[in-house]
Amino acid sequence: MFLAPYGVAVVLLIALPALLNFGYAFTDHTGLTRDPQFVGLANLRRLLADDFFLDSLEASLFHVAVSVPLRLLAAVGLGLLLAAPRPGGRWFRTAVYLPTVIPDVALAVLFLWVLNPLYGPLNQLLGLVGHPGFTWLAEPTTARVGVILMLLFPIGEGFIVVLAARRMLDGRLYEAAALEGCGPFGQLRRLTLPLLAPVLVLLVVRDTILTLQVNFVPAYVLTDGRPANATQYLPVYIFDHAFEFSGFAYGALITIVLMAISAVIITAQLLTVRRWRVLR
């Protein structure tokens, strides 16, 4: 009985839309009033010949390959650094978590100022060390870097998980390790990271799914997929086709591809972790 409301919500908000999305992918549905007609594999053939889709796929995979490790490293590093009681620790932990509660659109607008090539603070900091700075959002590579930099700030959820998991570890293990002559880096490598491994795997899986989806707002607000489709990630491409070009059915098919890519990446991550545990 307690699970019934959750089960109803899953059916209405997840399962039913997913089934409808799968069905629309094989039609000519435009998202308007006309009844969709079944077209078989026509959308799939269009997808295989779509160069813009390949650009979007490459941009999304690059974004995941760079952003997920950096976000995980930042969350784990700050979580372990701020786990021990220290003066002002509460304020530092609040400062790390605060960007997570800022709406994505507001954070993206803020980064339009941060990355401004003329008066943005990032270029001004680079100027202090003699670097002329970048036209961040006008070049493909730096535009991707700009989106990644923005998404390095809202890591509060992963930070809180690491912080809580570290505080749950038994302090006597560290006392015993210190008596055996194991220093801070040895304790990190031999105790902390192995004990936190299940939590870290969960964070990697979660952040992979999240990163493939939440790059929509920064890419749409910062660059609108430009320049040269460098930030035209799959969610942006799906939105453009479904709501800009009235290609609802084609957008539905790309959504299925996005889910399949997420499943493949997550499966590869879990198999890698399992193989690593067996080798150990």
Automatic annotation (TrEMBL):
The chain crosses the membrane at residues 61-83, 95-115, 145-165, 195-216, 248-271. Keywords: Cell membrane, Membrane, Sugar transport, Transmembrane, Transmembrane helix, Transport. Gene3D superfamilies: MetI-like. SUPFAM superfamilies: MetI-like. GO terms for cellular component: plasma membrane. Belongs to the binding-protein-dependent transport system permease family. This is Multiple sugar transport system permease protein.
